[in-house]
Amino acid sequence: xxxxxxxxxxxxxxxxxxxxxxxxxxxxxxxxxxxxxxxxxxxxxxxxxxxxxxxxxxxxxxxxxxxxxxxxxxxxxxxxxxxxxxxxxxxxxxxxxxxxxxxxxxxxxxxxxxxxxxxxxxxxxxxxxxxxxxxxxxxxxxxxxxxxxxxxxxxxxxxxxxxxxxxxxxxxxxxxxxxxxxxxxxxxxxxxxxxxxxxxxxxxxxxxxxxxxxxxxxxxxxxxxxxxxxxxxxxxxxxxxxxxxxxxxxxxxxxxxxxxxxxxxxxxxxxxxxxxxxxxxxxxxxxxxxxxxxxxxxxxxxxxxxxxxxxxxxxxxxxxxxxxxxxxxxxxxxxxxxxxxxxxxxxxxxxxxxxxxxxxxxxxxxxxxxxxxxxxxxxxxxxxxxxxxxxxxxxxxxxxxxxxxxxxxxxxxxxxxxxxxxxxxxxxxxxxxxxxxxxxxxxxxxxxxxxxxx
Length: 454
Ligand SMILES: Cc1cc2nc3c(=O)[nH]c(=O)nc-3n(C[C@H](O)[C@H](O)[C@H](O)COP(=O)(O)OP(=O)(O)OC[C@H]3O[C@@H](n4cnc5c(N)ncnc54)[C@H](O)[C@@H]3O)c2cc1C
Prior knowledge:
By secondary structure, the chain is α/β, with parallel strands linked by helices. The protein contains eleven helices and 21 strands.
């Protein structure tokens, strides 16, 4: 069998690549190979959120995400918003006076890098109008962010968060959508324009004179294609190794809880809510003495990291909410199904109680949670790898970490611009594999402070 482009991996990265090749560039002869059903390994485990609010040190991530959201909005308009893109925003919260300066400084950076204006709402009421986000739809909303430094205003607009909150940052070019429906929309379009989907495992890649020649499927079948795309998600490194390419990526396990909020502790119209303070978990005196006795559980009394977050999930008749908190992040070898930490739902619930006191109602009587998860496959600076490799005809699209859904449209577009020799956007070099050959970049990496990871 022969084709023009063979893509290994039908997750969101491979699907977006196929979409851009066939639908936007009219290339025939695209084959998408996956050993699993499309979009079923990592791309259906996500929180499905998006934002253009990214830290520096330069504007790469802001520019890249702005472009991706432009494309997402275009697809939403074209499809009658089949994937329910909303614009509820992300709400970052702090109750820690010692963190306040840092909270404000951190908020200034994405605004300076092009994510939109930062509107500060303090006790002076006349300065800016705050436009609330409707629960559905994405049009006609401001970008940038609204920074509330007046507790009265925080109480007025977000009455469900703790009275202790002293600052709230509402990021506006942000929200969520159905990842599965976005992926299926792009896949259906790609299929209609000639993409062929084949079930099978890529087990070998034949290279001749430093050029890709063919791909071996399930150890037996060979497909000849001059262009090979590695979109293997958590198996990016292994597929790189089949070509003697050492991709600088690793994986972290990230879990997610879905649970019923039948008491309505989190309003159905809420944005994504993120607690930015470190904290110690609330335990009773009896619990503290039990946890302290056992070396396996003593760590639960230590200070825990910032970043616990939640959002409502589903339409008007749903009462599901999602809880996420990476209190342990380790580099791991991806294994499937991923090992699940049974303590996670309880720990995430306790972590969220600081931000959302009404969740206390569920202590000891929480409805049965559903726990799942997947891997963030990432580079050390948490930027993706998109572009050619040192083997001619071989490309990579991956290391999409915790932002692969929101980045998928611009990532696929960028890779296809390389393949078709089209004009590249300004952010292309900073996301390419050969950035690691630039000594200036390596120096920059030594002092890289914030990866923007959630
Ligand atoms: C808990 C969690 C929350 C997240 N939240 C968000 C979020 O809110 N917003 C966001 O934008 N992103 C989020 N993400 C990240 C996002 O889900 C990923 O970045 C994205 O799904 C990665 O897509 P992918 O196509 O690179 O990988 P995958 O979806 O894993 O696809 C890779 C595909 O390659 C196939 N494959 C691998 N090896 C082979 C082989 N040898 N032969 C054939 N096929 C092969 C696999 O079967 C798989 O189907 C989250 C992730 C997790 C785990």
